[in-house]
# Entry
Amino acid sequence: MSQHIQWPVKTRELHSHHFDSTIWNDFRFRDDDIVIATYAKSGTTWMQQMVAQMLFGGDPDLPVAELSPWLDLRVPPKEIKLPAVEAQTHRRIIKTHLPVDALVFSPKAKYIYVARDGRDVVWSMYNHHANANAAWYAALNDTPGRVGPPIAPPPADIRQYWREWMDQDGHPFWPFWDNLRSWWAIRHLPNVLIVHFNDLKSDMEGEMRRIARFLGIAIDEARWPDIVRYCRFDWMKQNAAKSVPLGGAFWDGGAQVFINKGVNGRWTDTLTAADNAEYEACAARELGPECARWLAHGSAALDLRRTGT
# Structure
């Protein structure tokens, strides 16, 4: 049956202070690989934690950041990263922030895409960026191979940060709408599952079971309470060094800054009605009404649309 499916094809490379998408050209897939994709600050680390804890049956000492590398991050270089990933003997969990057409897509791997309202993304991104230290800037800007301009510290005013992100589509990181649109377009493929941050917040256990079914992970019910506990936000923040890259060494305040608040709506006190109307109009224009509605509300928006209420 799969031969009749039009699978995504890589059509471009993305390079920046963060990206080297060429690593996917040399990555050797296994049939049971799991790829977790997001734009960034959309619940990536949370999803990595959930998948890893279900896969390994609940282990408080699981080094999730090591188990689940960000493949297209350009540091360390692919000459180091690829052999390390190839040497992994467990079922692999790969992280990416690329749009679909900038990576190599395998019909046999399983893909989970996690999305979050762009306003919540920006507020989380600002915390991530504002707390980054000199080691973070050195790794991204000074390591050989950077293409394009360096990344600079953020402005002191988050409203200016928001304005630049909107006006320059994801500045200073990477385009937002294109990333989301590319994954939404392939949501019906049998090996793709889309997940919304709001749904993880409102029904984490239910979403975890849905993800386990999709990945074919058999849940040990005796271990389930611990598996769930290790995925709750408070536990992850208290044990953040296990799931944050390099134990949080790139952020002032350490790993607990990387796993910040895990809440939505922090922008409501800053953005005006006109700001929100502009964002919502942009989302509808860039994504289409159904995807824009899902991005704003989660699966409940689509359920309402299906029932006609």
